[in-house]
């Protein structure tokens, strides 16, 4: 997959705002291509709420999470009217008309737009985005409460099972992100119960977006031999935590404290497993469908600052040569995975607000709404990352809340949305 970055103007944070942050990150031509693919662009082209405007409306719902539909569309139309891009006689549609326009748009267009624009945004000059030439990436998931409608309950289910169900239906979202910028570069949405509801299942659909030159970080919930192989076969390198109960034989000890080992298909047992181990001890090539060489890095971390309670961290990596990256460097890199957790909080707690549920009462609109949040967060992350890179600072030093406030103010003052 081509991960080439779009060209974008340079300058400090305020200079980006006047160029239309959201439209710069989500260009009109990308939206039109998605609309054409789903036959949406031919309908109501001259209406009050054309489909491409509703794509930007979905993003604006994330920017103005506390506003009602009429307030959101008013914010957009005022900004366009100042630029002479909107009919002065246009009247704000009611919430019913906006709801119907959202339903006509559906969720597939938003999904395609996100897949098209969600590329890594950091470059080699972005502090904290790379490690020894690898672009740091992470995968993880979060859950989001949806309105307690019969349709949402059937589509997404309740966490906790039948004995202790959650108060609202929950939607599981697993995302791939660039650690340095917090930009989400892939997303999969699914239920929390039933077949295909696990984080591993959803993450599996994101691995094809990985590329050579990336180092994917993942917590211990994601490891299985099959998933490890699928992710590694993309050409990306992996640095995953695994449970300390997994048996990892020492094939060769390295001077940095790490050691060479192997992982294998769990179905291999008894004599077949012993033959595989014997071949590995002899340094022979392993059948990739049955086993892979890995390097193991183990270290302890204090539990909440208490030296008497230490947690063992066990990491697997495809980087088997210690000369490419010594163990302390990779151990330090793994903790950049928390950048992904921070990005999740930016979406759920900053954009939407803490303990807030989504507003959509049907599964299709829930997915559309989530993609709107992902697109808005991507645009804000790209803005912050490019401004930080220009200033030579880590993007984390520019607060996400400040970026959001500036962009909210800009929507009615500048060309924040393409007409």
Task: Give structural attributes.
ten-stranded mixed beta sheet; 10 strands; 419 residues; alpha+beta; single chain
Question: What features would you describe in this structure?
Answer:
- With 419 residues, the protein is α+β, with helices and mostly antiparallel strands.
- The protein has a domain at 13-117 and 363-410.
- Helices cover 39% and strands 18% of the residues.
- The chain contains 15 helices and 10 strands.
- Strands 1, 2, 3, 4, 5, 6, 7, 8, 9 and 10 form a 10-stranded mixed beta sheet that branches.
- Strand 7 (252-253) and strand 8 (259-264) form a beta hairpin.
- Helix 7 (108-117) packs parallel to helix 14 and helix 14 (363-391) packs across helix 15.
- The longest helix is centred in the C-terminal third of the chain and has 29 residues, at 363-391.
What is shown here, in short?
With 419 residues, the chain is an alpha+beta fold. Helices cover 39% and strands 18% of the residues.
